[in-house]
Design goal:
By secondary structure, this protein is of the alpha/beta class. Helices cover 45% and strands 22% of the residues. Strand 8, helix 8 (191-194) and strand 9 (199-202) form a beta-alpha-beta unit. Helix 1 packs across helix 2, helix 2 packs across helix 3 (86-107) and helix 3 (86-107) packs parallel to helix 5. The longest helix has 22 residues, at 15-36. The radius of gyration is 20 Å and the shape is globular. The chain starts with a strand and ends with a helix. Bound molecules: ligand C2E and magnesium ion (MG) (3 copies). Ligand C2E binds at residues 45, 61-62, 73-75, 78, 87, 91, 94, 118, 120, 150, 180-181, 204, 237-240, 257-259, 264. One magnesium ion binds at residues 181, 203-204, 237.
Length: 274
């Protein structure tokens, strides 16, 4: 948002706004080339059921591979893609790739119960999103119930009524809904009760310090309990050690995802891993 300066409401950009704008423009120009040159890649990370260690699904994670082979992590370009609107096209590509991967596994008789896909708030504001999502899933020969859409709490800061309606539409089509990075946003807890949500993902920042920090443990315990009481699946992200896993299992957390099991891998590697 631009600052209003003095009388007349003249809008002035300060230096950091200018920097951010320039960064967005640069990244989005590079990204256009990336799309044309097919440089985006789908990575996936398995999700594990703590009760029995079986794979419950996998999360699709976007990577950008430059011609020199180096990988650009999504944190550095997703925000620019949101600002430029390119995330709408990119997000549709990710969903289609994730569906193709899951359909391919199913054809080969390799069980992968579901695929989770990150959806940015900007995509939800696209009036065509629900139709696009249903069409993409159906064209791959899948049921929406095999797809979990990961949303962030910030989505609900947008336009609560409209977003709640959208989530209900998606849910009634059969999609599963997960709240990503739970506990780091600004929304109130009550929306978990109000919204059609299936899964809560406990943010990695709490998991990371489970062994050393009592308050992180308390927060993880509370989120798990909240999920249980509301009948939701709880999934801990960023699990790296057996100790963290043991604590989470004791708390009653249902599922986990993290380097302990597998780092994100290129989509074609998932079949062997499974
Ligand atoms: P996220 O959805 O919370 O994904 C989890 C992130 O944690 C991933 O980072 C993953 O590689 C990383 N991670 C998983 N296990 C561990 C672990 O044990 N230790 C550590 N240190 N990290 C772990 P990544 O792939 O860099 O993605 C970052 C974020 O970018 C994602 O966070 C998500 O918000 C966003 N993102 C990724 N792909 C997409 C996409 O297709 N669309 C949209 N809109 N956002 C995406
Ligand atoms: Mg996610
Ligand atoms: Mg997450
Ligand atoms: Mg996260």
């Amino acid at each position: 948002t631009a600052k209003r300066s003095g009388r007349g409401g003249i809008v002035a950009f300060d230096q950091s706004m200018q920097d951010r704008l320039r960064e967005t423009l640069t990244v989005s120009r590079l990204l256009r080339g990336a799309l044309e040159r097919d440089e985006l890649m789908l990575y996936v990370q398995p999700q594990i059921r703590l009760r029995d260690g079986r794979t419950s699904g996998a999360e699709a994670l976007l990577r950008w591979r430059l011609p020199d082979g180096s990988m650009i992590p999504p944190a550095t370009f997703i925000r620019a893609a949101e600002h430029s609107g390119q995330i709408v096209e990119i997000g549709a590509w990710v969903l289609a790739k994730a569906c193709a991967l899951l359909a391919g596994l199913t054809d080969r008789g390799i069980a992968c119960p579901r695929m989770a896909v990150n959806v940015s708030p900007r995509q939800f504001r696209d009036p065509d999103f629900v139709r696009m999502a249903i069409g993409t899933v159906r064209r791959a020969g899948l049921s929406p119930s095999a797809i979990e859409l990961e949303i962030t709490e910030s989505l609900l800061l947008d336009d609560r009524e409209a977003m709640t309606g959208l989530l209900h539409d998606l849910r009634s089509e059969g999609f599963r809904i997960a709240v990503d990075d739970f506990g780091t946003g600004y929304s109130s807890l009550s929306y978990l009760q109000r919204l059609p949500v299936d899964c809560v993902k406990i943010d990695r920042s709490f998991v990371k310090s489970l062994e050393s920090d009592r308050s992180a443990r308390t927060i993880a315990a509370c989120i798990t309990r909240l999920g249980q009481e509301l009948g939701l699946t709880t999934l801990a992200e960023g699990v790296e050690t057996r100790e963290q896993e043991a604590i989470l299992r004791d708390l009653g957390c249902d599922e986990a995802q993290g380097f302990l099991y597998a780092a994100p891998m290129p989509a074609p590697a998932l079949a062997d891993w499974l």
